[in-house]
Amino acid sequence: MRIHIATDHAGLEFSTQLQHHLAEAGHEVIDHGPVDYDPLDDYPAFCIRAAQAVVRDQGAGIPALGVVFGGSGNGEQIAANKVRGVRAALVWNSSTAELAREHNDANVISIGARQHTLEEAIGFIDRFIATPFSGEERHARRIAQLAAYEADGSLLPDPRAEAAPLGGESADAIDPEAG
Fold first, then answer.
1. For this structure, is 76 an active site residue?
2. pLDDT tens column, 45-83
Protein backbone atom coordinates (compact mmCIF):
# COMPACT_ATOMS: atom_id res chain seq x y z
CA MET A 1 0.00 0.00 0.00
CA ARG A 2 1.22 3.50 -0.77
CA ILE A 3 0.83 5.84 2.20
CA HIS A 4 0.99 9.60 1.71
CA ILE A 5 1.92 11.46 4.87
CA ALA A 6 2.02 15.15 5.80
CA THR A 7 2.22 17.22 8.95
CA ASP A 8 3.19 20.55 10.38
CA HIS A 9 5.84 21.33 12.99
CA ALA A 10 3.71 19.83 15.78
CA GLY A 11 3.70 16.40 14.15
CA LEU A 12 7.13 16.35 12.53
CA GLU A 13 8.74 14.01 15.07
CA PHE A 14 5.69 11.71 14.91
CA SER A 15 5.78 11.76 11.14
CA THR A 16 9.41 10.73 10.95
CA GLN A 17 8.93 7.83 13.36
CA LEU A 18 5.70 6.72 11.70
CA GLN A 19 7.29 6.74 8.29
CA HIS A 20 9.88 4.28 9.58
CA HIS A 21 7.15 2.08 11.09
CA LEU A 22 5.13 2.08 7.87
CA ALA A 23 8.15 1.34 5.68
CA GLU A 24 9.15 -1.55 7.96
CA ALA A 25 5.59 -2.88 7.60
CA GLY A 26 6.13 -3.02 3.83
CA HIS A 27 4.31 0.15 2.78
CA GLU A 28 5.65 2.65 0.29
CA VAL A 29 5.69 5.95 2.17
CA ILE A 30 5.67 9.31 0.43
CA ASP A 31 6.36 12.33 2.61
CA HIS A 32 4.71 15.59 1.58
CA GLY A 33 6.39 17.74 4.18
CA PRO A 34 7.66 19.59 5.91
CA VAL A 35 11.34 18.90 5.43
CA ASP A 36 12.67 20.82 8.43
CA TYR A 37 11.26 21.91 11.77
CA ASP A 38 9.81 25.42 11.59
CA PRO A 39 7.57 26.38 14.54
CA LEU A 40 5.75 28.88 12.31
CA ASP A 41 5.11 26.64 9.31
CA ASP A 42 1.65 26.29 7.79
CA TYR A 43 0.06 22.86 7.34
CA PRO A 44 -2.49 23.45 4.54
CA ALA A 45 -0.17 23.01 1.54
CA PHE A 46 1.48 19.91 3.03
CA CYS A 47 -1.86 18.24 3.79
CA ILE A 48 -3.50 19.25 0.53
CA ARG A 49 -0.59 17.82 -1.47
CA ALA A 50 -0.83 14.53 0.43
CA ALA A 51 -4.60 14.41 -0.15
CA GLN A 52 -4.19 15.21 -3.86
CA ALA A 53 -1.67 12.39 -4.18
CA VAL A 54 -4.08 9.90 -2.54
CA VAL A 55 -6.85 10.83 -4.98
CA ARG A 56 -4.46 10.75 -7.95
CA ASP A 57 -3.12 7.31 -6.98
CA GLN A 58 -6.55 5.87 -6.30
CA GLY A 59 -7.76 7.21 -9.65
CA ALA A 60 -4.85 5.42 -11.32
CA GLY A 61 -5.73 2.16 -9.57
CA ILE A 62 -2.86 2.34 -7.09
CA PRO A 63 -3.87 1.30 -3.57
CA ALA A 64 -3.19 4.41 -1.49
CA LEU A 65 -4.24 6.07 1.75
CA GLY A 66 -3.15 9.21 3.55
CA VAL A 67 -2.22 10.21 7.09
CA VAL A 68 -1.96 13.84 8.18
CA PHE A 69 -0.81 15.17 11.56
CA GLY A 70 -0.85 18.35 13.54
CA GLY A 71 -1.20 19.44 17.14
CA SER A 72 -4.89 18.50 17.29
CA GLY A 73 -5.40 17.10 13.80
CA ASN A 74 -8.40 19.36 13.23
CA GLY A 75 -6.88 21.83 10.77
CA GLU A 76 -5.10 19.07 8.91
CA GLN A 77 -8.37 17.18 8.46
CA ILE A 78 -10.07 20.34 7.20
CA ALA A 79 -7.25 20.98 4.72
CA ALA A 80 -7.32 17.42 3.38
CA ASN A 81 -11.10 17.54 2.99
CA LYS A 82 -10.78 20.52 0.64
CA VAL A 83 -9.52 18.12 -2.03
CA ARG A 84 -12.26 16.69 -4.23
CA GLY A 85 -12.49 12.95 -3.68
CA VAL A 86 -11.01 12.97 -0.18
CA ARG A 87 -12.90 11.69 2.82
CA ALA A 88 -10.64 12.60 5.73
CA ALA A 89 -11.59 11.56 9.25
CA LEU A 90 -10.22 12.79 12.55
CA VAL A 91 -9.17 9.70 14.48
CA TRP A 92 -8.76 9.61 18.26
CA ASN A 93 -9.02 5.88 19.07
CA SER A 94 -8.93 2.48 17.37
CA SER A 95 -12.68 2.42 16.95
CA THR A 96 -12.79 5.72 15.04
CA ALA A 97 -9.91 4.53 12.86
CA GLU A 98 -11.79 1.34 12.00
CA LEU A 99 -15.15 3.04 11.46
CA ALA A 100 -13.55 5.69 9.26
CA ARG A 101 -12.69 2.94 6.76
CA GLU A 102 -15.52 0.48 7.40
CA HIS A 103 -18.44 2.93 7.24
CA ASN A 104 -17.08 6.03 5.51
CA ASP A 105 -14.46 4.57 3.17
CA ALA A 106 -12.15 7.31 4.44
CA ASN A 107 -9.00 7.57 2.39
CA VAL A 108 -7.17 9.96 4.73
CA ILE A 109 -7.01 10.11 8.50
CA SER A 110 -5.88 12.94 10.69
CA ILE A 111 -4.31 12.49 14.11
CA GLY A 112 -3.43 15.03 16.78
CA ALA A 113 0.22 14.49 17.58
CA ARG A 114 -0.10 16.43 20.83
CA GLN A 115 -3.08 14.32 21.85
CA HIS A 116 -1.61 10.82 21.56
CA THR A 117 1.49 8.77 22.18
CA LEU A 118 3.45 7.38 19.27
CA GLU A 119 2.24 3.87 20.15
CA GLU A 120 -1.39 5.01 20.07
CA ALA A 121 -0.91 6.70 16.70
CA ILE A 122 0.73 3.58 15.27
CA GLY A 123 -2.22 1.52 16.47
CA PHE A 124 -4.72 3.91 14.87
CA ILE A 125 -2.86 3.92 11.56
CA ASP A 126 -2.38 0.17 11.46
CA ARG A 127 -6.08 -0.37 12.20
CA PHE A 128 -7.07 2.17 9.52
CA ILE A 129 -4.89 0.52 6.88
CA ALA A 130 -6.02 -3.01 7.79
CA THR A 131 -9.75 -2.25 7.76
CA PRO A 132 -11.58 -2.53 4.43
CA PHE A 133 -14.67 -0.58 3.47
CA SER A 134 -17.71 -2.74 4.30
CA GLY A 135 -19.46 -1.94 1.04
CA GLU A 136 -22.82 -2.08 2.80
CA GLU A 137 -25.53 -0.41 0.74
CA ARG A 138 -26.39 2.21 3.35
CA HIS A 139 -22.75 3.32 3.61
CA ALA A 140 -22.21 3.29 -0.15
CA ARG A 141 -25.42 5.32 -0.60
CA ARG A 142 -24.25 7.97 1.85
CA ILE A 143 -20.80 8.20 0.27
CA ALA A 144 -22.47 8.61 -3.13
CA GLN A 145 -24.51 11.51 -1.71
CA LEU A 146 -21.33 13.20 -0.53
CA ALA A 147 -19.73 12.68 -3.94
CA ALA A 148 -22.80 14.13 -5.68
CA TYR A 149 -22.72 17.23 -3.52
CA GLU A 150 -19.01 17.60 -4.11
CA ALA A 151 -19.48 17.23 -7.88
CA ASP A 152 -22.45 19.49 -8.50
CA GLY A 153 -23.93 20.68 -5.21
CA SER A 154 -26.91 18.34 -5.37
CA LEU A 155 -28.64 17.27 -2.18
CA LEU A 156 -31.59 15.05 -1.41
CA PRO A 157 -34.82 17.05 -1.13
CA ASP A 158 -35.40 18.77 2.20
CA PRO A 159 -38.30 16.92 3.85
CA ARG A 160 -39.34 20.14 5.59
CA ALA A 161 -39.91 21.88 2.24
CA GLU A 162 -43.08 19.83 1.61
CA ALA A 163 -44.92 21.14 4.66
CA ALA A 164 -45.05 24.92 4.90
CA PRO A 165 -44.61 26.13 8.49
CA LEU A 166 -47.05 28.49 10.17
CA GLY A 167 -47.17 31.81 8.42
CA GLY A 168 -46.95 30.20 4.99
CA GLU A 169 -43.17 30.60 4.58
CA SER A 170 -41.12 27.71 3.26
CA ALA A 171 -38.65 26.17 5.67
CA ASP A 172 -35.76 27.46 3.54
CA ALA A 173 -36.98 31.04 4.01
CA ILE A 174 -36.86 30.93 7.80
CA ASP A 175 -33.98 33.00 9.12
CA PRO A 176 -32.40 31.17 12.07
CA GLU A 177 -30.73 34.45 13.12
CA ALA A 178 -34.07 36.25 13.46
CA GLY A 179 -35.30 36.39 16.96
1. yes
2. 999 999 999 999 999 999 999 999 999 999 999 999 999
DSSP annotation string for 18-34: HHHHHHHTT-EEEE-S-
Q: Report the 10 Å Cβ neighbour count for 134.
A: 15
Catalytic site residue from 28, 103, 120, 139 = 103
H or E element, residue 170: none
The residue annotated as part of the active site, out of 4, 9, 76, 116, is 76
- Write out the DSSP string of 82-121: TSTT--EEE--SHHHHHHHHHTT--SEEEEETTTS-HHHH
Task: Give me the chain's average pLDDT, please.
Answer: 90
pTM recorded for the entire structure: 0.86
Closest C-alpha among 22, 26, 7, 10 to residue 123: 22
